[in-house]
Amino acid sequence: MCSQEVDLSNFDLGLVQVEDETQRRIDQIKTCSTEEDLETLKETCGDWIAGCGVPTVYTARLQDLPQVHGRVVAHFIYHRVASMIQQFIAGMNACGRFWELVKSYWRQFVPVFTNTGEKLTRHKFLSLFDKTRSEDGSNRWEMEESTLYLFEDWLLGIEEGVVDFKFEDLLIFLTGADCLPPLGFPNRCTIDFYDQEPGVKRLPFASTCSLSLSLPRGMDSETECGDHGHAPYGRKGFWGCNLVGFGLYRRPRIPVALVVGEY
Question: What does the record give as the active site (predicted)?
Answer without folding.
Answer: 209 (glycyl thioester intermediate)
